[in-house]
Specification:
It is built from ten helices and eleven strands. It is of the alpha/beta class. Helix content is 27%, strand content 25%. Strands 1, 2, 3, 8, 9 and 10 form a six-stranded mixed beta sheet that branches. Strands 4-11-7-5-6 form a five-stranded mixed beta sheet, covered by helices on one side. It has two domains: 122 residues, Major capsid protein gp5 fold, CATH 3.30.2400.10; 127 residues, 2-Layer Sandwich (hypothetical protein PF0899 fold). The termini are far apart. It is flat and about 100 Å long.
Length: 347
């Protein structure tokens, strides 16, 4: 069979003719149509970032207070204290002669303090179909929810440690009603006097730190074990002393200067200076507050009687999911010696 010569082949014309339907309508096959027709490739060609980005936050309570673990589901935490006394005092009344018919007797006064505890409860729910889909994507939904639960628990611990809960009538490290409150000293400027550290020279900042340390230590009768060893303050003040040089020609920062020359260090204490957002505006009339105290279990603590525990998991057929309950038992902040903590406002 001989082929008929039809002349030059026009691919555009042929495509247009082949795209006509029975009613004479024509499907758009231009460049835009071809591009949109390849949209399914967007999911095939993407690069998956496997990192799940969690919320930004910080927790500092484990640094700033001793945490004792264990104790069970107790309703209170008790602490024993004892005070000693002797007839006539411990001065010349202890002097004794051979013919004396009696000796002064030491007496002990015991007391017990009770501190509140509270239970924490929270739960997670994972839909059954989401668990199956997680097998396809390689992500564990239950694990992601546990991370969120842990963050929520840490935030609760943070507030419990620093301020307590007003609804439960508890306080924390920076608002203890029995602590002594001092006001930062003025910089002595005639035109615009200020107590803020940003307006003071390094020696004046060191004086504030030493004043708070000595005030606290003096109330402890200068017990060498009770020398304050911990200072917390807002981030603004901490970052200022951590970056500001003592002088323009010096390489040493104010923070290094404070750590080397504070009176606590001169008396055998290893002073720690840290920052926390909870000190911002925590003072009287909303002033920034610095807390100076002895961070030892003998003087203060917070009990985690039952750490966050996965209590039970059960299938929920009504909602087609798995429900998991978590629980913990915590105490309020326990300050056993209120004389070992001092606040300085206005820094």
């Amino acid at each position: 069979m001989a082929f008929k010569n039809v002349g030059t082949f026009d691919i555009g014309k042929a495509a247009t003719q082949s795209a006509r339907n029975g009613n004479g309508a024509m499907v758009n096959m231009d460049a835009a149509g071809i591009a949109s027709g390849q949209a399914f490739l967007s999911s095939e060609l993407e690069k998956r970032d496997m990192l799940v980005r969690t919320p930004l936050t910080s927790f500092t309570y484990t640094r700033d207070i001793p945490i004792r673990v264990g104790g069970g589901w107790a309703e209170f935490v008790s602490a024993m204290q004892v005070g000693y006394g002797i007839t006539g005092g411990s001065g010349d009344s202890l002097m004794h002669s051979g013919g004396a018919n009696g000796v002064p007797m030491v007496q002990a006064d015991f007391s017990k303090g009770l501190f509140k505890t509270h239970m924490v409860a929270a739960g997670t729910r994972v839909m059954w179909i989401d668990m199956q889909r997680g097998n396809m994507t390689g992500r564990n939904i239950d694990s992601l929810l546990r991370d969120g639960l842990r963050m929520t628990y840490d935030k609760h611990m943070e507030q419990n440690a620093y301020t307590g809960f007003e609804v439960y009538n508890t306080t924390g490290l920076i608002n203890n009603p029995d602590a002594t409150v001092m006001e930062a000293s003025s910089n002595g400027a005639a035109a615009s006097p200020s107590t803020k550290w940003a307006d003071k020279i390094p020696d004046q900042i060191l004086q504030d730190v030493n004043d708070a340390i000595l005030e606290t230590w003096a109330r402890s009768e200068y017990d060498l074990d009770a020398v304050p060893n911990h200072i917390i303050m807002p981030y603004e003040q901490y970052n200022y002393i951590a970056t500001k040089k003592v002088t323009d020609l010096a390489e040493k920062t104010i923070l290094a200067y404070l750590l080397e020359n504070n009176v606590a260090g001169k008396n055998g204490s290893d002073l720690v200076i840290g920052a926390t957002s909870w000190c911002k505006g925590a003072g009287d009339a909303g002033e920034d507050r610095m807390a100076v105290y002895c961070n030892k279990e003998r003087y203060m603590a917070m009990d985690e009687l039952v750490p966050l525990t996965r209590a039970m998991t059960s299938p929920n057929t009504a909602d087609f999911c798995y429900d998991t309950a978590y629980a913990a038992n915590l105490s309020e902040v326990q300050v056993f010696y209120e004389q070992t903590i001092t606040y300085m406002d206005g820094i």
